[in-house]
Amino acid sequence: MTRRRRIAAAVPAAPRRRAAPRTDVAAPAALARVAKRLCAPGRDPATGKPAAEEPGPLDIRAARRPVALELIAGRGHYERVIRAVLNAHTSVWIATANVKALLVEDGRAAPGRRRSLRRASYVSVLARLDELAARGVELRLLHAELPSRPFREELARHPRLVGGGLALRRCPRVHLKAVVVDGELLYLGSANWTGAGLGAKGSGRRNFELGIVTDDAPLLDQVQSMYERIWTGGECARCKLRD
Questions:
Q1: pTM, whole model, 2 decimals?
Q2: CA–CA distance from 236 to each of 130, 209, 231, 232, 241 (Å)?
Q3: Which residues touch 15 (CB under 8 Å, ≥6 apart)?
């Protein structure tokens, strides 16, 4: 054993001292910070954790029940939803995140021209909506993003729509995709109001979309009630978006 190690062995280790229980009181500033955290709005006073929010008018979880519906995908959106819109009698309510120009087939004979069965002609859906507005059909378009430039340019060509025939309202929180026709047909699904979304483009160019169509009265009532609340600004007062 070296000399250094012998000296270390000869010095007894200091006894371990047990920590005395704390009897001090936190500083007033620290207590104030804790109280502020526990009593902050939206937090549970007992735990300081975020408190559960009270459900709002748009927080819905309906009871399970049998509902008759149709599943549609791809071109099925065009055949079922677009055709229903173009044959509307009283109203068309549309909710979408994105809005783009949309062309639809128009097999009707143009004035002075014979109807062709070989090749379908196409017109802007806004031209067809303008015809609906002329017949007094109520048209609403609730959307989140600014409509595309081609859509806006085409809209400008239809003074009746610009003058109120097509009512547009924008809310950045809108992400639902819904179409309600005459208060009797409801579409809910993934498709935005675009050609690629609603199956107006050819195979290989349109989106992969899924949706359902139903005439179920309770579902129609619920969706129209939610739509109306957003449309009339019922959620604006409690909205926390700064823009």
A1: 0.76
A2: 30, 30, 10, 9, 9
A3: none
Say if residues 223 and 215 touch (Cβ distance below 8 Å): no
φ, ψ dihedrals at 226, nearest 5°: -65, -45
Tokens for 146, please give them.
């600014």
Instruction: Give the rounded distance of the alpha carbon of 209 from its chain centre.
Output: 15
The number of CA neighbours under 13 Å toward the Cβ of 39 is: 6
Which segments of 25-181 are extended strands (E)? 70-73, 91-96, 103-106, 121-124, 138-143, 166-170, 178-181
Rounded distance between C-alpha atoms, residue 27 and residue 213, angstroms: 64
Which of 206, 183, 182, 211 minimizes the C-alpha distance to 196? 206
* Segment-wise mean pLDDT, segments of 10 residues, the chain, 243 residues: 45 53 56 58 61 82 94 96 97 98 81 56 95 98 97 98 97 97 98 94 92 98 97 93 75
Contact predicate 194/99, CB 8 Å = yes
Instruction: Choose among 123, 179, 117, 126: nearest CA to 151.
Output: 126
In the chain, the N- to C-terminal Cα span, in Å, equals: 78
3-state secondary structure of 203: coil
Which among 33, 32, 53, 55 has a CA at the least distance from the CA of 43? 53
**Residue 173: strand, helix, or coil:** coil
